[in-house]
Amino acid sequence: MKKSVYSVVLSDDVIAEVDRLAYIKGTNRSNMINQILAEYVSLTTPEKRINDIFDELSSLLYSGETFRELSPRAPSVMSIRSALSYKYNPTVKYTVELYKIPQGSSQGEIRVSTRTQNSALILEMLHFYNIWADIESRYGFSGENSFEDGVFRRPIILRESPMPNATAKVAHSAGEMIAEYISLFDTSMKTYFAAVSDSTQKIFNLYYDYIRTNQKII
Q1: pLDDT for the residue 111
Q2: 202 Cβ contact list (under 8 Å, min separation 6)
């Protein structure tokens, strides 16, 4: 969305209130005024779209007992935590970043990390990520995943299910699709760390059910 510089005269009291709101929402004065005016004229800005997605993501993920907010969200970034049953129950951090302007086919990025120096855990996480990436690639995901410095990165690409007979339960919004993907990823990771002999097959089955029951996925 193109932006230009405009000169307007506003009262000091109005600016003070705008600055207060901007501080609460973690943005600056110009963005806050732009959001207020856009809302008044019923125009959806990239910032409003991202905020709406995060609101929906919060309501879906935080309604249960698995996920909790890790830190107050920034205008384009939201951090979520989940506990992993592995020795000292390390925290798994999910960071969702949404782009104001898509970068190619990518609408944003999901990053997964665990604050640990335990080499055994890092190796196990890498093994799981490789299994996960292989399953996604097998079912048509064309994005490039990466694992570096303990962080798994996965682009958010909105796409159709590769299953021709996939059935959607409801029409999915971006917030729902991201929430379902994070829930699936978290469940699959915990299945892997449960150390059952057929964990890879169980993860495959979880992903298969995901693409079979959703027409729209990420």
Answers
A1: 98
A2: 191, 196
